[in-house]
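In response to the reviewer comment on reproducibility (Comment 2.3), we provide here a single inverse folding case reported in full, input and output, so that an independent group could reproduce the run without further information from us. The C-alpha cells appear first.
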C-alpha cells in the first residue's frame, strides 16, 4: 500500500512540475529558452551581451504583469485551494530558479569583461522574490 501511495505521489509531483514548466513557457518562454541555450555554451564569453540585455529589458517590462497572469490562470484552472496553492508555489518556484540562473549568467558575463556594461540591468532576484511572496496566500 505504501509503495502504491509513493508511486502516485511521484506521478503527481512529475505532473505538477510539467504543468509548472508549461505555465512558465507561456509567460516566460524567452527567459527559459535563453537560460537553457546560454548554459550550454562552453565559455561564458560566447553568451551574447545583446541577448542578455534583451532578456533583462523584456523581463523588467513585464514580470509583475506576467506573475499576476500566472496567478489568475491557476485560480481559474484549479478550484481546490490546496491543489491550486501547491501548483502556484511550484510555478513561482520554477520562475525563481530560472531567473536566478539568468541573473548569475548576466553577472558572470559582464564581470568577465572589464569595463563592459549592459544596456539594461535586470531586476534584482530579491525584488522578484518579494513580489512572489504577495501571491503565496492569495489563492
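Designed residues, in position order:
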Amino acid at each position: 500500500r505504501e509503495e502504491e501511495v509513493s508511486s502516485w505521489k511521484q506521478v503527481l509531483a512529475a505532473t505538477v512540475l510539467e504543468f509548472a514548466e508549461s505555465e512558465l513557457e507561456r509567460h516566460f518562454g524567452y527567459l527559459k529558452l535563453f537560460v537553457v541555450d546560454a548554459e550550454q555554451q562552453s565559455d561564458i564569453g560566447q553568451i551574447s551581451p545583446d541577448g542578455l540585455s534583451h532578456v533583462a529589458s523584456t523581463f523588467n517590462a513585464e514580470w509583475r504583469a506576467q506573475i499576476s497572469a500566472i496567478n489568475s490562470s491557476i485560480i481559474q484552472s484549479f478550484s481546490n485551494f490546496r491543489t491550486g496553492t501547491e501548483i502556484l508555489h511550484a510555478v513561482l518556484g520554477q520562475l525563481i530558479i530560472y531567473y536566478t540562473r539568468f541573473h548569475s549568467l548576466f553577472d558572470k558575463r559582464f564581470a568577465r569583461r572589464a569595463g563592459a556594461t549592459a544596456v539594461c540591468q535586470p531586476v534584482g532576484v530579491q525584488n522578484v522574490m518579494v513580489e512572489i511572496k504577495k501571491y503565496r496566500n492569495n489563492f
